[in-house]
Amino acid sequence: MYVYVCICVCVCVCVYVCGVCVCVCVCVCVCVYIYIYIYIYIYIYITLLLNSSNILPTTKEDASAHVKMLWVRRVCGIIFVSCALVSGFSISNRTLNLMSRYPLIDGHNDLALKLRMLHNNRLNQINLHAMEKVSTDINRLQDGRVGAQLFAAYVMCTAQDLDAVRLALEQIDVIQRMCTEYEALELVTTSEGLKSSKKIACLISVEGGHTIDSSLAALRMFYHLGVRSLSLTHTCNTPWAKSSSKIYPFYIKETRALTDFGMAVVEEMNRLGMIIDLSHASWDTAWAVLNVSTAPVIFSHSSAYAVCNNDRNVPDNLLHALKKNGGLIMINMYTKFVACSDNANVSDVADHFDYIKTLVGSDTLGIGGDYDGAVKFPQGLEDVSKYPTLIQELLHRKWTEHELAGVLRLNFLRVFKDVEKVRDMQRQKPPGEIEIPLQEANNSCRLILRPPGPSMRAVSKNDVNVLRPLSTLLLACLFLLYF
């Protein structure tokens, strides 16, 4: 019996340290458990035979001792099997050690949106270490071995042409305050700062090009406020780029995949050193951007179209172009982008990693969970604390630690550094000053000032009343001269 108990203990240790397959662990431990039961019953049977031959003592005290021994062995068997099962489903030391050496850089998180929705951006009302009704807080980021987070300043498409810029500024503000008021967080704006941070590094991204209101000046101001990534669209077209989404048709403006002004946005982002994010952009727009951009681009929270045929995911030909660009696709955790249904598990997510790795290599992969933005996540990946579960699954699928170090961290650092290199090469290039044509902006709230005087859009009613009699007098004079 003791040999089998030792085997059970060894299995537990192997699972805990090395991440041996859970199924093997369960099978071995069940066999041990069955053996213990068989041993007990055989022992009882032999004991009864021996007792009937008066070979063993038959006193009441001896019988009680035998019963106690049987129960001790039974309890020991249950304990060993339970320990093996629990250790089999826990995260291995190998996984946690890997993620401690290479803390995850998560490409997309919408906690700032939840702060607006639930608390109106009032940070003094919350404890960011432990929050309810969200999938992200500091404690869970630490449990998930997240070393850096791109926090999205998201503005809904209904604000386009209205107060999208103001709302974006308010979201940038709450991210800045959040990341400077909490000791566990650190706001960073460079690849070097991201690499060297010993805290949870915060990068600010803006979700949706409608937030710049078709203004390169607004884009530059976002950069100076610390924004280092911009997704060109969200669920609506902008006047200069097309969205992948068709779920909100009343937000859609007719536009080309990428207009001349859209190209100017791409070029200005290259000049600034701001990462271009193509998640939510249409495939046509993504192709156009890849033809214009001199810097790598990312899909901050998208998955493989071949695995789940949702338009928010990326098809094979675009993945090949992304590989050539040196960019990155950061896999989304939303069930409908992972499994094209409301139900998914860790294996479904890992399938996207396996597929893209086989197609274009692991150096094109990252992780962009979309927590607190999407509404439903796979079983086992319910919040940001569960990222080690995904990494352990990939280890079970024979991914190397070198490959996973890239997925977790190094691939994004490479892309960010390459974007900064392009910026440095363009230091002598002047800022873009192109304005979007009025017919493309199609915005009734847009005030255009042209020297030396105001445009007719800015003429007041009083001015019109003064001009009306003058024009009448001029027409009368022309009439008299003619006759």
UniProtKB/TrEMBL annotation:
It comes from the Eukaryota. Pfam families: Peptidase_M19. One of its GO terms (molecular function) is metallodipeptidase activity. The chain crosses the membrane at residues 7-36, 42-59, 71-91, 466-482. Its cofactor is Zn(2+). Coiled coil: none annotated. CDD domains: rDP_like. It is an enzyme of class 3 (hydrolase). It is found in: Membrane. Keywords: Dipeptidase, Disulfide bond, Glycoprotein, GPI-anchor, Hydrolase, Lipoprotein, Membrane, Metal-binding, Metalloprotease, Protease, Transmembrane, Transmembrane helix, Zinc. One of its GO terms (cellular component) is side of membrane. It catalyses: an L-aminoacyl-L-amino acid + H2O = 2 an L-alpha-amino acid. The keyword Lipoprotein applies. GO terms for biological process: proteolysis. Its EC number is 3.4.13.19. It is a lipid-anchor; GPI-anchor. Belongs to the metallo-dependent hydrolases superfamily. Peptidase M19 family. Homodimer; disulfide-linked. This is Dipeptidase. It comes from Denticeps clupeoides.
